[in-house]
Amino acid sequence: MDARLDYAGNPVGARIVKHVVSASRAAHDSSLPAATRELVQLRTSQINGCAVCVDQHAKDAAHAGETSVRLNLVAAWREATVFTEAERAALELTEQGTRIADGAGGVTDEAWAEAARHYDEEQLTALVSLIAVMNAWNRLNVITRQPAGDYRPGQWG
């Protein structure tokens, strides 16, 4: 499959990508645990059907030491016993924040309270921002049909 558009290959797209990368970096430079970041990025990408992001974040997580069991169970995290309470709260917030149009009222107070029980204000800010940024990446990639499968861990920094 060929991409419909090289959005980073034109001046407007390059400027947009520069800002999305900067937002991604801010979330990554926070105190939000690295394992949580990878799980959130992977789950967001699974929900949105973004193959290029699933490829990247599964490979980056594995390269960083994440187990294949946990990576394979992210899509079914509710029934899995391998995630911490904090990770489960982050995954619930991720799902509700990604599926805003599917739920009346967006993110529930219960999901927010559970995430706030496990993460401080800086971490919550990073978590919410990461969910939003991943949704932006997913949409850029899905709309333009970016091909997946060739990603190498660390390729994008």
Quick structural gist:
By secondary structure, the protein is mainly alpha-helical. The chain has helices at 11-28, 34-48, 51-63, 68-73, 85-98, 109-118, 121-143.
Mind explaining what this structure looks like?
The mean pLDDT is 94. The protein is an all-alpha fold. Helix 2 runs parallel beside helix 7. The protein has helices at 11-28, 34-48, 51-63, 68-73, 85-98, 109-118, 121-143. It has a single domain, classed as Up-down Bundle (AhpD-like), CATH 1.20.1290.10. It is globular. The chain has seven helices and no strands. InterPro entries: AhpD-like, AhpD_core, CMD-like.
Q: Give the total of beta strands.
A: 0
> Whole-number average pLDDT?
94
- What composes the largest sheet? none
The radius of gyration is 15 Å
Low-confidence stretches: none
Sequence-ordered SSE layout with sheet pairings:
Layout: H1 11-28, H2 34-48, H3 51-63, H4 68-73, H5 85-98, H6 109-118, H7 121-143
Helix pairs in contact: 1-7, 2-3, 2-5, 2-7, 5-6, 5-7
Pfam family, one: CMD
GO molecular function, one term: peroxiredoxin activity
Protein name: AhpD family alkylhydroperoxidase
Output the keywords.
0% strand, AhpD-like, peroxidase, globular, 157 residues, AhpD_core, 7 helices, CMD-like, mainly alpha
